[in-house]
Each structure stands twice: as C-alpha cells, then as structure tokens.
Amino acid sequence: MVDDIALRASGLIMEFKGFRAVDGVDLAIPRGTIHALIGPNGAGKSTCFNLLTKVLTPTAGAIHFEGRDITGLSPANVARLGIVRSFQISAVFGTMTVLENVRIALQRHRHGDSWDFWRSDRVLAHLHEEALALLASVGLADYAGHVANDLPYGRKRALEIATTLALEPRVLLLDEPMAGMTQEDVTRISALIRKVAVGRTVVMVEHNLSVVADLSDRITVLARGKILAEGEYADVARDPRVIEAYIGVAHA
Predict the structure, then answer these.
(1) φ, ψ for residue 169 (rounded to 5)?
(2) In b/e form, how buried is each residue of 137-163, taking b as 16+ CB within 10 angstroms?
(3) Element (H or E) spanning 160, and its range?
(4) How far is CA 182 from the centre of its chain?
(5) How far apart are CA 131 and CA 97, in angstroms?
(6) φ and ψ of 110, to 5 deg
(7) pTM of the predicted model as reported, rounded to 2 decimal places
(8) Which residues contact 210 (CB under 8 A, 6 or more apart)?
C-alpha cells in the first residue's frame, strides 16, 4: 500500500563538527500538496533540503519516501525514484538552445548515465516532440531556438523547471525559486509552480512570504535547526513566536 505521506522525516539531526544545523526535525508531507519551509537565515532550511535530496546523510534520524526508507540511498538513486531538486541558482547549459537543454534532460532520463547521442533519427525525433511539448507547458514554445544564455532571468527559471519536469518528478523540491526576480517574473513563475504542482508533491524554500501564502497548503517554520511552528499560513503568521523570530523581521 502506498503511503499517503510522500516524504516523511523522523528525528532528523545534522551535525557539523559539533554544531547542530538540524536538530530533531520531523516532517510529514502529504502527496499532492505544496509545502513550504521558511525561517530566518541560518534556520536550517537548506540543510533540510540537502538531507531530503540525500546530498547530505543525516547524523541521526530517518527519511521515508511513500513508506520506503531512503535514508541510506545516494542522490542519484533518490532522483531515480522521482525526488528531484531544482534551482537556487539557475542551472542550464548556457551555450545550448532552449530546446537542446530540454532534449538533453530527456535523453539523460531515458538512458541513465549514458548520454547516448548516437540514437536513431526516429528516437531523436520523438525526443524533439517531447521537448517541444515540455517547453509549451512552461510558456517557452516561442523560445525553443534561443540560446539559453540569452533568455531573461525569469525565463531561465522556467527553462530549469522544464528540464526538471523532463525527469518526471513525483516530488519536486524548489530552492528559493523567486530569488532575484522582478515582480513580473514572480507572478509568472508562481503561476507556473501552481500549474506543475498538479499531480505532484512540491516542497519549497522561499523567502517571499506573499508567494508562500499564495501557493502553500502547509508551512513549516524553522529556527536554529528546530521546528518553531507548523500549519496553514494564516495560523502560522499569527503565532507570536514566528512573528518575533522571522515574520516581523521579514516585513521590517
């Protein structure tokens, strides 16, 4: 039976030379929801992300994906299960076209660690069609032939979402997706995240509280490596501890 909880973390601890960056964190993120991790700088948000995607191995605690213990798995094996992390800094092949970026992601997903460039014309044509469909889904159909480096910043973020979707994620982890964006780009990418979240679980770290309030089904607030509060945004935002530790500072 598949667990209704997509990602579960139990008693996560991460120590660096005696310093606990994450200290006893428990998370239960239901499938098909958008869950935000927020908190002041140094709260442990990025470390939690690195633990969930297995960039780091916890000092103690366990991580389960749909009931399966993935604590000891490598980042590559976790990604193959469908847990895919995307951008804090936009990461694309800048000298390639937008279409080529997505097609390479599709090739990598289909053929594992082998880039397998010597495919038949029929297979490559199929990938071409898939890549165009993905670009259309993120509003980049008209940019397919553009060199990635020439894209405006917000469009590069959309391209990275497209390359992430090529990996067919079941859980999508977004690390500060709105960082450095204009308000116009924030509006566009927020709408895109809502769109791609349909049928998926999304976990995001984000400092833009308006975006968090608009998109998230549930919020976890971290402070000094511990969970300070958790719940719907309206409830969390009224918590005096959260206001003192973060929201009051964020709006100052």
Answers:
(1) -70, 145
(2) bbbbeebbeeebeebeebbbbbbbbbb
(3) helix 153-165
(4) 20
(5) 12
(6) -75, -35
(7) 0.87
(8) none
Secondary structure class of 201 (helix, strand, coil): strand
H or E element at residue 37:
strand 34-38
Question: Can you name the CATH fold of 32-57+69-82+169-252?
Answer: Rossmann fold (3.40.50)
pLDDT digits (tens, 9 = 90+) for 78-125: 988 999 988 545 568 888 999 999 988 888 766 554 445 545 555 566
Residue 7 gets which letter from DSSP? E
Report how far Cα 27 is from the mean position of its chain's Cα atoms: 16
The upper half-sphere exposure of residue 94, i.e. CA atoms within 13 Å in the direction of its Cβ, equals 6
Q: Where are the domains of the chain?
A: 32-57+69-82+169-252, 93-167
The token pair at 13 is 């601890």
**DSSP state, residue 243:** I
Beta bridge partners of 25: 12
Task: Give per-residue pLDDT as tens, 192-214.
Answer: 999 999 999 999 999 999 999 99
